[in-house]
Amino acid sequence: MTESIPMASKVVAVEELPSNNRPRDEAIDIIRRMGLPQGIAEQILKSTESFPVRYWIVDNSGSMSTGDGHRILTGPGGREGMVTCSRWDELGSAIMWHARLAVELGAYTEFRLLNAPGSGPQIVIAGTTVGSYDPASAEELRCIDELIASTPTGRTPLCAQIRAVTAQVQAQKESLLATGKRACIIVASDGQATDGDLAQALAPLRSLPVWVVVRLCTDDDSVVEYWNSIDEELELDLDVLDDLSGEAAEVTSFSPFLTYAMALHRLREFGTLYKLVDILDERRLSKHELIDLVALIFGDDAREQLPHPSLGFKPFLRALKEVQAGAPPVWDPLRHRHRPWINIKALSRAYGTKACLVM
């Protein structure tokens, strides 16, 4: 029942949220230190402005102990590799990353467990102040540590938590609309709701200023189909994400030249209104959209360095090679090794002169 789901101590007023008053370049540098390239850092900052409040609905049901999750770890000498872990450990790694980002930027975020943990709070809030140097921020991260150290247990009462968050956003609706902003709701789950009709629970969000991300913690076909059917049924701004490897396979089926790295996945988990991101796993990009892709990774300034690919693809490739030259390679979750963000040769094969003749 909804009554068993705790609300936050109070509904936070949008006007009372912390403000990231750092200079833009300083804020971008802070985000980049979390392992993001310039363009994705720019989009993260824009996202904090578009979505001043975030709600993570976190599935800590018993099935999250299943050991088919994956994490990227950094070993001696900076060597990276993907290791097998529980679904809960994989999600916990994501939660800690987003909590640290929230703390650094003052990006108000509620992490709400489906089931009460054995100890500690069921709701943890991060980003109530700006900067990890603040004592309050250290306490927030300590509580996040405690949250992800808890043991998954119980069923999957998604509907109750969605209704609780809906009530929060309903109270913030007028303030959000007045400022042209939205709340971002991230549902991280490996299953289907055990407490009712999920589509019915989500339906009231259609009249609220929200963006919804569903971060799946399994590649089980029935669960994926369950969430995709809800996405099709509801007229709601909703982005369903597979895990890193699953999403990488989808994206690269349309863009085989692109390395779908963790930084891009983190942006999508965070929520973004950058239109290109929403179509990466849906279709092949147009030549004009290739410029948007380069800007997404390497920053808006990269646009000025690129000739339009339709006016000559070889000059475009030469300019892209220069733009990418200083960027470190990133971990490819499909090939399990470091690769450049964009494979120039593969891009040439996909969009060069011969490819254009058959398009």
UniProtKB/TrEMBL annotation:
SUPFAM superfamilies: vWA-like (SSF53300)
InterPro entries noted in UniProt: vWFA_dom_sf (IPR036465)
Classification via Gene3D superfamilies: von Willebrand factor, type A domain
Protein origin, superkingdom: Eukaryota
Protein name listed in UniProt: VWFA domain-containing protein
Source organism: Chrysophaeum taylorii
